[in-house]
Amino acid sequence: MPTTERPLVSLVTPTYNQAQYLRHTLQSVLDQDYPNVEYIVINDGSTDDTEALLISYGEAVRWRTQANRGQSATLNAGWDMARGKYLGYLSSDDLLYPSAIRRIVELLEARPDCVCAYPDSELIDQNGAVIKRAVCRPFDLAELVVRQECYIGPGALFRADAYRRVGGWKPHLKLAPDREFWMRLAGEGDIAYLDEVLAGYRLHRDAISYRSVSEEVSREYVSVLDDYFARDPAPELLARRDEAYGFAHFLLARNALRDGRLRRGLTLYREAQRLHPPLAHPRYLLQLTRNTVSKPIRAALSGLRNAIGHAR
């Protein structure tokens, strides 16, 4: 694709107190082999060295500082500023690998039926070491709605005109704004998966996946379904409504148990089983245990199991 024909891509990074990772994120965008990128960074009220870091990049990055508004409102503000044909976002602790934007644009330009495309990614730790490669899968709307499994990660781009039709992330959502957005966007066209590892998703102790989540916030799993099923979904998904709500309550139970609310977690798990009886299968109880028992306890249980095995 000649340089003059390469459409503008607008990428937004909202950041809050992640200066220790932000430099690597910024550099990963500036090192892209795609020449037509508008990079917008919004400092969402950080109190660390974020602003000084952004100043050091001069005009290489378009940025601004604002009072803290939260991730969703900040992303929407960035996308509303954007001029590109394609929009995307990159969390301030994640990385794009050098050909990520080019390869996704090539796919979208070849597939006008697609409103979004995303690559595979790998999990990296706080030092950038690879934990696990190839963690994504092809997009499946049923899996997103029913299981709330979302494999769209860093490197995703979507068409700006589709964004304007469906609207941005909902600021009141704290846990599932991305899932809810992809559910709406999927109504506009196909979402394509590129089977190439082109991004790094960073896991560290400050990440949301490591935090305790209240039941009030966890209820988003249910409210997202309420909104989705109110929009006249396809009959095959409407037929799986109880299954979807069952899995939503399973996730509520998982978060309650992670937070140490044992009785509440078991109550929510019983509700999950009522809505979708197959969730009573022992493999789901085992999954709850694996997700909620702390690593030291799992290690101790593993050691005990090994000791028993040797004793036999």
How would you explain this protein's 3D organization?
This protein has 14 helices and nine strands. It is globular, with a radius of gyration of 21 Å. Helix 9 packs antiparallel against helix 11. The C terminus is likely disordered. It folds into two domains: 207 residues, Spore Coat Polysaccharide Biosynthesis Protein SpsA, Chain A, CATH 3.90.550.10; 88 residues, no CATH class. It is α/β, with parallel strands linked by helices. Strands 1, 2, 3, 4, 5, 6, 7, 8 and 9 form a nine-stranded mixed beta sheet that branches. The longest helix is centred in the last third of the chain and has 18 residues.
Counted beta strands: 9
CATH architecture of the largest domain: Alpha-Beta Complex
Q: Give the C-alpha Rg.
A: 21 Å
Low-confidence parts lasting 5 or more residues at pLDDT below 50?
298-302, 308-312
N-to-C CA distance: 66 Å
What is the 3D form?
globular
Q: What's the order of the H and E elements? A: EHEHEHEEHEEHEHHEHHHHHHH
In the CATH hierarchy, what is the superfamily of the largest domain?
Answer: Spore Coat Polysaccharide Biosynthesis Protein SpsA, Chain A
Overall structural class, as computed from helix and strand content, comes to: alpha/beta
CATH fold-level assignment of the largest domain: Spore Coat Polysaccharide Biosynthesis Protein SpsA, Chain A
Residues in β-strands, percent: 15-25%
| CATH class wording of the largest domain | Alpha Beta
Q: What share of the residues lie within helices? A: 40-55%
Whole-number tally of structural domains: 2
Count of helix runs = 14
The main sheet comes to: 9 strands, mixed
The overall average pLDDT, rounded, is 90
Protein name: Glycosyltransferase
InterPro entries: Glyco_trans_2-like, Nucleotide-diphossugar_trans
Pfam families: Glycos_transf_2
GO molecular function: hexosyltransferase activity
